[in-house]
Amino acid sequence: MTVLLETRALVKQFGEFRAVDRVDFRVEEGEVLALIGSNGAGKTTLVNLISGLLRPDAGQIVFRGADVTTQSVHERIAAGIARSFQLVNLFDQLSALDNVALAIFSRQGKTRKLWALAEADRPVWQEAIEILATFRMDGKATVPAGGLSQGERKLLDVAIAYALRPRLLFLDEPTSGVSTREKAPIMDTISAVVRSERISAAIIEHDMDVVFSYSDRIVAMHQGAILADGTPDEIRRDERVLTTLIGTPETR
């Protein structure tokens, strides 16, 4: 497979604490990767570095062969890197359709004229409707985001990131805070979309059932460094991961 993104000896410190410690990390074209680790392992900091929310203290980030280490968030979005957030940040007073349309207008650089363009730019609204349908949410198009269930809000957040048309999509705990029965439908939908569109996805996730069911490869972090990297079967048998992160069947 072709490497889509890689970090080289990436470092981020907060005072004396090294949250990311010389991390070499990669995402390949078309794969669904799970990024696991205990709280404080460095997962979110690594994704914040890659998506541009933080600047590294050392190291390099290469996306599609280009050095993006010093690029802004918006430049990285334009290049094809997008993310959803663990704590969903939607415009609650706007409808689901408006939230997706806003992302499309943003992608096109039209946000300052959003409402002036609202009636004139029908293709944007058509695309927004199609995106909601892709995520099986077209029936919720007119519902204010604040009136959606937690699972629906999670899907809408991913749909908004998808509306930016990324090549690489980071998903920060897409099933956190939702009921057990909602998890599989949410992940089935997300997995179907990213795989059919050949979007590379990296999922930060604590639910090991989700991790092992939906990922092609798993990267485990511990204390700011990569502890293990392998297929689900390899990770399931890795003694370091079992001891440090997952636990044996008796201790899980």
Could you characterize what this model shows?
- 38% of the residues lie in helices and 25% in strands.
- It is built from ten helices and ten strands.
- The chain has helices at residues 43-51, 73-79, 96-107, 114-117, 122-134, 150-163, 180-196, 208-214, 232-237, 239-246, and strands spanning 3-14, 17-28, 32-36, 58-63, 66-67, 81-84, 168-172, 200-204, 217-222, 225-230.
- A six-stranded mixed beta sheet has the order 6-7-8-3-9-10, sandwiched between helices. Strands 2-1-4-5 form a four-stranded antiparallel beta sheet, with helices on one face.
- A hairpin with a 2-residue loop joins strand 1 and strand 2.
- Helix 3 (96-107) packs across helix 5.
Labels describing this entry:
252 residues; alpha/beta; six-stranded mixed beta sheet; four-stranded antiparallel beta sheet; 10 helices; globular; disordered C terminus
Instruction: Provide mean pLDDT, rounded.
Output: 89
Number of strands: 10
- How far apart, in Å, are the first and last alpha carbons? 34 Å
Number of helices: 10
Shape: globular
β-sheet strand percentage: 25-35%
Query: How large, in whole angstroms, is the Cα Rg?
Result: 18 Å
Structural category is: alpha/beta
- pLDDT < 50 stretches: 248-252
The spatial strand order of the largest sheet comes to: 6-7-8-3-9-10
Q: Which H/E pattern describes the elements?
A: EEEHEEHEHHHHEHEHEEHH
Biggest beta-sheet profile? 6 strands, mixed
- Percentage of helical residues? 25-40%
Outline the fold blueprint:
Elements: E1 3-14, E2 17-28, E3 32-36, H1 43-51, E4 58-63, E5 66-67, H2 73-79, E6 81-84, H3 96-107, H4 114-117, H5 122-134, H6 150-163, E7 168-172, H7 180-196, E8 200-204, H8 208-214, E9 217-222, E10 225-230, H9 232-237, H10 239-246
